[in-house]
Design brief:
The protein has a 7-stranded parallel beta sheet. It has a 4-stranded mixed beta sheet with strand order 6-9-8-10. The protein has a two-stranded antiparallel ribbon with strand order 2-3. Helix 4 (about 55-65) crosses helix 7 (about 110-135) and helix 10 packs parallel to helix 11. A hairpin with a 6-residue loop joins strand 8 (about 210-215) and strand 9 (about 225). It folds into 2 domains: about 1-20 and about 135-358, Rossmann fold; about 30-135, no CATH class. The protein has helices at about 10-20, 30-35, 50-55, 55-65, 75-80, 95-105, 110-135, 140-150, 190-195, 265-275, 290-300, 320-335, 350-355, and strands at about 5-10, 40, 45, 155-165, 180, 190, 205, 210-215, 225, 250, 275-285, 305-310, 345. It contains 13 helices and 13 strands. Bound molecules: zinc ion. Zinc ion binds near residues 217 and 240.
């Protein structure tokens, strides 16, 4: 019997592969990550195009200024930015969007939540586009190398992937002859994607928080699968293919949001995969406290004799021992039933792919 190896991907994997924002950078670094050219006319920067692109971001700054008095200078700072980057230095933990969304949910502020969701989409879609332009060849990216690795190991072990990332940086690739299967029942698939999606012997890619390339109709619940080449503006302009005259919403479950029942089968599948895994490798995911549903899933599904590998990044050699110790403690506390020693790779996604443990 072929052994099952489950990989778990979090934001750290996408940050390492293509500099996608981590949770703390999400939305806040949008302008720094995705600047657009500013024309200078007679010495005066013409910001009209940029203002158009970042119109939601401007609104977000307005909202944060009203939520946190210490940030009330932000809209003005934005308006005065000229042709400079919009760097922010005093963004603290309480301003991270997962904390902010928690406040918005308490207040039942649907417009605010929707605005943050839109910006999450824009920020990830636009940084992904930039990454695609930089790398050009998928196989040169860490995700490309990762795909190659798990395909080469297929004789010895069957890989499946659980991902918490919305981005679609990990996707099918013609050169690598690799295919993934979201295991989601789509009612409609973009015809161009349909030709290549989930073809022969695909690898399971279970995205428990949804994905930027999935869309759901708020009226008829029809689920759509789009292509992987996404723009920030793609958020608003998709019509339901059922002709029910509704606009499709991206199917992404943002922090603190309730999961739609439609996604339940994926959680059940993830549980089955974890239960039958001989090895689980967690790359760039830190089991944050608000992901209680995820922690519960792993606590109940991981078998006591599973081999657990944790891939994380550690800045500076002198911190390695401490990082190893705190990571170990954290996992022991989260999953006390685990019997085996946890294998910790502190050299990040790249180091893991190069087999550099330690
Ligand atoms: Zn519909």
């Amino acid at each position: 019997m072929i052994k099952k190896h489950v990989y778990v991907l979090g934001a750290g994997a996408s940050a390492a592969s293509a500099r996608l924002p981590l949770g703390r950078e999400l939305v806040w670094n949008y302008h720094v990550d995705c600047p657009s050219m500013v024309q200078i006319n007679n010495g005066i920067p013409d910001l009209s195009k940029q203002n158009e692109k970042f119109v939601n971001f401007r609104e977000f700054l307005e909202m944060t200024a009203s939520m946190f008095h210490e940030l009330n200078y932000l809209p003005q700072k934005w308006d005065d930015r000229g042709s400079t980057m919009f760097f922010l230095s005093n963004i603290g933990k309480k301003h991270y969007i997962d904390e902010m969304l928690w406040i918005l949910y308490q207040r039942d502020d649907h417009d605010g939540i929707e605005l943050v969701r839109k910006l999450i989409f824009e920020h990830l879609a636009e940084t992904s586009l930039l990454a695609a332009n930089i790398h050009r060849l998928y196989m040169d990216t860490l995700y490309g190398k990762f795909t190659k690795k798990i395909m080469m190991q297929r004789q010895e072990e069957e890989a499946s992937i659980i991902s918490f990332n919305f981005d679609v940086l990990l996707h099918e690739d013609i050169d690598l002859e690799s295919c993934f299967d979201y295991r989601m029942k789509f009612d409609w698939i973009d015809p161009n994607r349909d030709k290549i999606y989930a073809r022969s012997n695909p690898i399971k890619l279970i995205k428990l928080n949804g994905s930027l390339d999935w869309g759901i109709c708020p009226s008829c619940d029809k689920i759509h699968l789009y292509h992987t080449h996404l723009f920030g503006s793609f958020y608003n302009n998709k019509e339901c293919t059922s002709r029910c005259n509704s606009s499709i919403q991206p199917f992404i479950v943002i922090p603190h949001e309730r999961y739609k029942e439609i996604i339940d089968p994926l959680w059940i599948l993830a549980e089955e995969e974890l239960k039958s895994a001989y090895k689980v490798t967690v790359i760039g995911y830190s089991f944050p406290e608000y992901d209680k549903k995820v922690i519960d899933l792993f606590a109940s599904a991981l078998t006591s004799d599973v081999l657990l590998e944790v891939v994380t990044h550690c800045e500076g050699y002198e911190h390695k021992d401490r990082t190893r110790a705190t990571t170990n403690l954290k996992y022991k506390r989260l999953f006390p039933a685990l019997e085996n020693k946890i294998n910790i790779c502190l050299n990040g996604f790249q180091g893991y792919l190069n087999n550099e443990f330690g």
